[in-house]
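Need residues for this backbone.
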């Protein structure tokens, strides 16, 4: 049985990585999907492959978001779900992070998540129901070590934003976050494996399961939080992190 039959869902960042795996899974489960991504060509390629709608969008730009979300809802005949997976990485520490890099990281990861929720919520209220899943990060719960100050701050913000939005949009719209550990995507391509192509032991050592994740393992958790199987869950930050943050 298709677990998302009849659902109409926007996935930001759906052109790559976790968002792309989620878009594929959601289509398999019967949802209509609109991919909103700044990478127009990649979004189109994924959309063509799975039978989704691709719309160019920069989640840090309010006008771009409003236009894209309205277009997506029009194409799908409404909107009752959002997955906020667009994001960027910044790996510098306090001394090396410029004000511009700090602001840009927050603009995409945190403000972008807020702006998408702000534009999408009224359309979901019109449907009388909806789900929002924000992709935060395990580092938003517990940093892995020094560095990445802007990224960590943005993801901690997404965890808190999720709780605040869950309070405000209840009971019709459930809002949850997923906190991934290290996932093999374009974002982590530089360091998730060694030069020889093996999993990076400096990363895998942090995980009780002793390995990094594939994007499909995140998509499965995002699917759960989008279906009615999680109907009594809202405001949570769900670690999907191979056991890094529980101890
Ligand atoms: N890969 C990991 O290890 C990991 C771990 C924890 C959290 N996350 C989070 O998961 C989410 C997805 O990351 P991923 O690993 O799949 O990365 P990715 O780089 O493969 O995909 C990110 C997508 O977001 C899009 N994007 C970036 N900025 C955008 C903008 N301003 N407007 C619209 N689209 C934009 C990119 O074009 C890309 O398609 C991100 O929020 C990331 O921070 C990833």
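Answer:
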């Amino acid at each position: 049985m298709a677990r998302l039959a009849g659902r109409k869902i926007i996935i930001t960042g759906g052109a790559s990585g976790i968002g792309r795996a989620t878009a594929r899974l959601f289509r398999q489960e019967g949802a209509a999907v609109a991919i909103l991504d700044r990478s127009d060509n990649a979004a189109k390629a994924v959309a063509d492959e799975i039978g989704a709608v691709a719309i160019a969008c920069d989640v840090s730009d309010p006008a771009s978001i409003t236009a894209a979300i309205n277009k997506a809802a029009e194409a799908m005949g409404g909107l009752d779900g959002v997955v906020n997976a667009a994001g960027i990485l910044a790996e510098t520490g306090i001394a090396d992070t410029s004000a511009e890099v700090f602001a840009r990281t927050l603009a995409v990861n945190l403000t972008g998540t807020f702006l998408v929720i702000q534009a999408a919520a009224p359309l979901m209220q019109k449907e009388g129901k909806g789900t929002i899943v924000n992709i935060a990060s395990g580092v938003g719960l517990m940093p892995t070590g020094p560095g990445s100050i802007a990224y960590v701050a943005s993801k901690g913000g997404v965890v808190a934003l999720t709780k605040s939005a869950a309070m405000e949009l209840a009971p019709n719209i459930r809002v949850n976050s997923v906190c991934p550990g290290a996932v093999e995507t374009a974002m982590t391509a530089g360091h998730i494996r060694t030069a020889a192509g093996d999993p990076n032991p400096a990363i895998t050592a942090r995980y009780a399961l002793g390995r990094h994740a594939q994007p499909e393992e995140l998509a499965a958790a995002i699917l759960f939080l989008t279906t009615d199987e999680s109907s009594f869950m809202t405001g949570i930050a769900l670690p999907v992190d191979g056991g890094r943050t529980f101890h």
